[in-house]
Amino acid sequence: MDGPLSGIRVLDVATLFAGPLAATMLADFGAEVVKIEHPDGDPVRSHGAQRDGVGLWWKMLGRGKKSVTLYLGSAPGQQIFRRMVADADVLVENFRPGTLERWGLGYSELREINPGLVLARVTGFGQIGPYARRPGFGTLAEAMSGFAAITGEPDGPPMLPPFGLADGIAAQATAFAIMTALRARDRTGLGQQIDLAIIEPILTLLGPQLIAYDQLGELQTRMGNRSSNNAPRNLYRTADGGWVAVSTSAQSVAERVLRLVGRPDLIEQPWFGSGAERALHADELDDAVGAWIAARDTAEVVKAFEHAEAAIAPVYTAADVLDDPQYRALGTIADLPDAELGRVRMQNVLFRLSDTPGRIRWTGPPLGAHTAEVLGRYGVDPDALAELRAAGVVR
After folding, report:
1. Residue (of 165, 146, 269) closest to 218 by Cα position
2. Catalytically active residues, by annotation
3. Residues carrying CATH 3.40.50.10540, the chain
4. Could you point out which of 138, 144, 167, 280 has its C-alpha 20 to 30 Å from the C-alpha of 43?
């Protein structure tokens, strides 16, 4: 077995981030993922940083996938696609609702071809409702979920994350939804349709905001790096210009931190025994902790906190991550050969299984690298492939 999902065949016709990343996670654990791209390629190939014209994001997002070009808006492309659906287990798509139906490839048609098919539909706003047909990206989910409203400094504007947070969360939710549907298929023999709106998973991760407003009428406000649940909790500047993050979610850790920084008197205050009460005295606690940290270099601060068994971490850049011994011990960073770039380093599989681990079989391949191989299974011989290429259906 080449991974625990070996034997599962996935067709990935989604673009950019959430849907394709879910398929990447399945590929990491052995699923055969066929990435069906428009002959011009998935836009992620030209999104973000590039080296010598090669998209670096694609190298991660396309890893372990077979790249096949096929124009689904054409009659020949749709005919071939139906053959591919017939022996697929999962189809991941993120077209605007109604697009597959317009092509005659809606779920009712696909289910007639393959009753066991799991169709994962990942869109900004879902398949139903007044916003369903709007263009939707993770940025909109970060705004509509309430994430942006609580992110930033108290006297500053709402802030968005500088990376695809909502897409990443939606990708993990999609992968879980697919595995749940496959488990249900084991019992019933039938596939089903998954409707996943990117605006929803990030809302779940924001915790008790909705129920707090529903029950108490309270709205969480922007607090910068602080927390309403405990203190001290912040980023602090060190003497050598570094930054460290300190968290005291546990009462015992809060006490250790204050003893370490020479302020045991604060532990005796009546308000110190509650995280929420400590948060109301964040200025005083930040002054005590911040002054102690500001007088010492980063390495000294981290070592002292570790000795005191208090929670701390330096603020890393990507360069620091690649050099960190804990990440090395976990195998978090994979060093892989690549046909276009030589060797590349990227994040490894998401988690470690003791008996059936995942692995990255290859990095994102060149556009259409597996078109002849994969379409050959479905009766597309070299002559037919040449005709399709001439017609612009494949590349």
Report:
1. 146
2. 167
3. 9-204+328-390
4. 144
- Structure tokens of 307? 């000795």
| pLDDT digit string, tens, across residues 235-292 | 999 999 999 999 999 999 999 999 999 999 999 999 999 999 999 999 999 999 999 9
**Burial classification of residue 124, based on how many CB atoms lie within 10 Å of its CB (0-12 exposed, 13-18 middle, 19 or more buried):** buried
> Do 97 and 132 touch, CB atoms closer than 8 A?
yes
Give the C-alpha separation, 37 to 71, whole Å. 8
Q: Please return the burial class of 75, using the count of CB atoms within 10 Å of its CB with bins 0-12, 13-18 and 19+.
A: exposed
- Asked whether the predicted pLDDT for residue 318 surpasses 80, the reply is yes
Encoded tokens for 310:
């208090």
Q: Which CATH code is given to the segment(s) 9-204+328-390?
A: 3.40.50.10540
Range(s) within the chain of domains with CATH label 3.30.1540.10? 234-314
So what's the architecture of 234-314 in CATH? Answer: 2-Layer Sandwich (3.30)
User: To which residue do tokens 């597996």 refer?
Assistant: 370
pTM of the model: 0.95
